Amino acid sequence: MEAIEVSENGHEPGGANSIQLIAFSIGEQVYGVEITTVREIRAWNGATPLPNTRQYVRGVINLRGTIVPIFDLRARFGEGKTEATKNHVVVVLSVGDKWIGILVDAVSDILTIQKDDIHSVPEGENMDAELLNGIITHDNRMVGLIDLDTVVGNTGEES
């Protein structure tokens, strides 16, 4: 992981115009979420499946008494189900008043970016642009910023 820069006064460089992201990979693609939403990063140990859920909901885990649904991010992005191994990682996040987990291949970096460097997601017929808040370029690679509310918002509960 990259080191987080901290100035002499203990604040992040860039102040109010910068945000920090946890970056993780799914295949060759890198995605990120704001570090303030991350509650825990844990190794994949399986999940208890639930009936009548969307294909991208792997099930639930019991995290110290809290039931946390696990979303397969690869499947959520329409790239097929993850063949999870002990090398895969669950990133536990706070989304509103709920905790959720996302299954990813690996956590790679902590990135400090400037808000001005976030670009809008290009639209096209084969792009699921509503799942992303934006795109940044960091070290010559594109990082998709995940819109957590949209990714977890429609989990298959029937009305």
Kindly summarize this structure in a few lines:
Strand 4 (57-63) and strand 5 (66-72) form a beta hairpin. The protein is globular. By secondary structure, it is mainly beta.
Overview of the structural elements:
This protein is mainly β. It has one domain (15-152): OB fold (Dihydrolipoamide Acetyltransferase, E2P), CATH 2.40.50. Helices cover 6% and strands 45% of the residues. It contains two helices and ten strands; from the N terminus they run E-E-E-E-E-H-E-E-E-E-E-H. It has a five-stranded mixed beta sheet. The chain has a five-stranded mixed beta sheet with strand order 3-6-7-5-4.
SSE diagram, text form:
Elements: E1 18-26, E2 29-34, E3 38-43, E4 57-63, E5 66-72, H1 73-76, E6 89-95, E7 98-104, E8 106-114, E9 132-138, E10 141-146, H2 148-153
Parallel strand pairs: 2-10, 5-7
Antiparallel strand pairs: 1-2, 1-8, 3-6, 4-5, 6-7, 9-10
Q: State the fourth-level CATH superfamily.
A: CheA-289, Domain 4
> Average pLDDT value?
84
CATH topology: OB fold (Dihydrolipoamide Acetyltransferase, E2P)
Numbering strands along the chain, what is their spatial order in the largest sheet? 8-1-2-10-9
Summarize the amount of helix as a percent range.
under 10%
CATH architecture level-2 label: Beta Barrel
Low-confidence blocks of residues: 1-12, 155-159
The SS-based structural class is mainly beta
